[in-house]
Each structure stands twice: as C-alpha cells, then as structure tokens.
Amino acid sequence: MSDENHDKELRVEKFIFDRPEAELEKIKGNPQKVLQLVEEYSRKENLMIIGPHKGQIVIDKIKERPRNILAELGCYIGYSAVLFAKELPDDGSKYYSFEVNPTFAKIAQRIIELAGLEKKVEIIVGKAGQTLIDFQAWLQKGHFRAIDFILIDHWKDLYVPDLRLLESLSLIAPGTTIAADNIYIPGAPEYKWYVEATPEERREYNSTHENVNGKSFTGRWNILYDSKAVTSTLGNGMRDDVEITETLQYLDA
Ligand code: SAM
Questions:
Q1: Stated pTM of the model
Q2: Segment holding 163, helix H or strand E
Q3: What's the 74 CA to ligand 1 centre distance in angstroms?
Q4: Does domain 7-250 correspond to CATH entry 3.40.30.10?
Q5: I need a surface site. Which of 76, 160, 172, 203 has the fewest CB within 10 A?
Q6: Hey, whose CA ends up nearest to atom 17 of ligand 1?
Q7: Which element (helix H / strand E) includes 73?
Q8: Which residue has the least CA distance to atom 19 on ligand 1?
Q9: Are 103 and 76 in contact (CB under 8 A)?
Q10: CB neighbour list of residue 61: distance below 8 Å, 6 or more residues apart
Q11: Ligand 1, residues 12, 99, 166, 217: which to mutate, most atoms within 8 A of Cβ?
Q12: Tens digit of pLDDT for each residue in 49-105?
C-alpha cells in the first residue's frame, strides 16, 4: 500500500479526535473506550484490524504466562497495540509495534496516547525486514533476550521471510509464542506450511528459497515448533483463523 492511500485512516483519526475536549477527556486513559470507537468506525468502513473476536484468542495466549517483551509486525492505526498492551502489568513489560507506513504510525501514536498506553507501546517505523535488524542490535546492548510473544499481521507475502529473519536473529527462541493473523482469510498458506512443517522439511525449504531480506537470513531449521490454527467466528459471521505457534526447543544441528 502506498503512503498516498490513507484517506480512510485519516477519516478514522478525525472521527476519534474531532470531538469536544470534554468528551475526549472522558475517553483519555480508557483503552476499552478507544477500542470501541475504532470498532464502531470499522463497522462503517471496514478497517484492517484484528477485531475483538480473534483478538480474544491472542489475549488468552498472552495471559498464559508472564511476557516481558512483546512485538507485532503491522501496527496499522494502533488497534491491536492498544488491545494487547492494555493486558500488560506495570512491570516494565513492553509492546514493540513495527509499522512501515509513517502516516499510519502517526495516527497510531495518537490513538495509543489517547488510550494512555504510550509508556507500554513503542512504534518502530520502517520496513520490519530492516528495522528488526536494528532492534536486535539494540536489544543486544542490554541483557539480550528473545521476544516472548509476537503477532505477525502485516503483508502475507512477508510472513515467511520476516519469520526466517526473526529466527536468524534469535529474536524467536524456545519459549517464544507466535500468533499470525488472517490464516483463513485471505490466507497465508506458505506461512502455515512453514510453521507446521518438520525441521527437515524446513531445512530443505530454507536451502532452496533465498530470503528477500538478505541471503544470510536463511532461518533456523532446527527450531522445533508446535503449531496449529485456532478458528474464530467474526462479528459478521465469517470465519478466520489465527495460527498459534509455540517454539519448543532447538534440535541438535
Ligand atoms: N495489527 C493491526 C491491527 O489489528 O490493528 C493491523 C495491521 S494491518 C493488517 C497491516 C499493517 O502492516 C499495515 O499498516 C501495513 O502498512 C503494515 N506493513 C506492511 N508491510 C510491512 C512491513 N514490511 N513492515 C512493517 N509494517 C508493514
């Protein structure tokens, strides 16, 4: 999507922020109210947000165990960042949201601030295939840890290349949970195959498919995944799946 094609998102921004100061004050610091406004707008002009039904699958997964470093590929206007970051305790847990489109990122920043979650969410602007490399270098300056939970929700043709990048950078490691949206509609068959494949099948795939993010980011075939699609019925009665992948262990390479 080009940066010019953002009229709808600017209309959502107006819908949320062009209201009397007193009304905005009542919304400020209340993530639930902010989410409701975005959902209300989405019923008029279908926004590409994960929505409350699939969102609940992700929330349940996040809450299974403590998660300190969370990330998502595809911030859009900040809906999912608000939905998931509102679940984090005030213990320094952080939600890093990667977004390529600077206009979307700006709207997202306003929405996240309105929800009062700016201390928990940091938006990283740029193509995830590049910014993840800087992110890993930055994490390495501290006490490096892999990402505990990641939502993959950007363009479908980038799911596998960016996952292989995350594997290569050890940002995904045993203990990481990966959730990927839109597995049924519009579908991400190559991604589904990849996370459900055996390590041997992935070894073959990684050696025969060059990563668009760079030759050296082959991925790590010796990660053992446990992965399955979780089905959700959306508000409009349609079905979609979220693929939930647990990273179990590294096999001896
Ligand atoms: N997670 C969001 C939510 O539920 O509210 C929806 C994300 S929307 C489906 C996909 C977003 O991914 C778009 O905003 C798009 O600009 C962004 N995107 C696409 N390619 C990207 C890339 N390579 N790096 C970072 N963001 C990307």
A1: 0.96
A2: helix 159-168
A3: 3
A4: no
A5: 203
A6: 74
A7: strand 69-73
A8: 154
A9: no
A10: 149, 177, 179, 244
A11: 99
A12: 999 999 999 999 999 999 999 999 999 999 999 999 999 999 999 999 999 999 999
